[in-house]
Input
Amino acid sequence: MPSSAVTGRRSGLHADLAQVGVTPEPPPMPGAPLRVRVKTSDLLHRVLPNALAVRLAEAHGRRLWKRGEGERDAALAAMDAVVAGTMLAADATRLARMYVIESQVHKALFWQPWKTAETDQASSAHLDQALGSGRPVLISSCHLGPYFHSMSVISSRGHIAHAVAGPWFFEEPTPDYWGRRLARWRKGVGARGELLVPSSGCFPILESLLLRGEIVRLHFDLPGSRQTRFLGKQVALASGSARLAFSTGALVLPVRARRAGNRVWTDVAAPLDPHGFTSCEALHDALAGVHEGWILQMPFALEDPHRPGAWEQQATASAWQDPRRPFPPLRARLTSRDRDADPEQGARAEPLDDSERLTRR
Output
């Protein structure tokens, strides 16, 4: 007979699963100063063509770079942290300029109507293969490109996905730019029918959802306990995606949002089947390789790893350390590939629940 503690955990899990089965009602757009209301006006952006919005944003980004000040310094630091140790390291200054411009374009597209992203023939085939497999699907994305569009290719095919959201996502929107941005985000998510899972203690909920055959989306590029060779350096990454796939048998579907002019595409790689990997660590490393390749094609479109909730000031040119944990000693930082060359290094224990968090942009 199960203990009262076990029964309580099961009851709590059932209650949590019931709560994530409903799309939260999007809040009304809060008030704000006139300049902010105009900048974030839904009516204005409905009549503003995407092509014009992108051209204006690109011009603004070029002005910001030329003006210098904080935008340039932040962009240089971001690109140095991203491309150091890669073949693009010598291009950091050029990429930093592109980063400033692309950041402005992403902001502009965020306020434009959210349309269904386009997919090429290969991406469509990978989507249909995974969604038609009869198996649970774990969608893995990074904070790369206009990623708020990426899940549209799931909802447009008649599927509903569960996405993890940090506590801030459920807060009452404040009467300022951030509050209006939060309200707009929740409206966009609600229109797609996405179901939200609070990030705190989410691992068992996501595991249960996948075991029920549901679709779950997790961001891969978040700090955690798994030391990974990524972007030419050691990066402390959350390992929840690979562990969930291994425990549930879910196919892992890597996706990337990509802008081409004023059009947004979702690129979809071939599904990664956990049954084809010898270990959770091997699956994690393979997934890191897919995302790394995509990021290095357009590093200027990756969100700043120094942003709050990510690696913050622990993201340097030599390593990205988890700001929530003391950095482990050298031997504990060996990846599974390193351990192949070091037979004395055993497998390192992972905590059960790495939080996969959406972060403020």
The chain has one domain: 13-340.
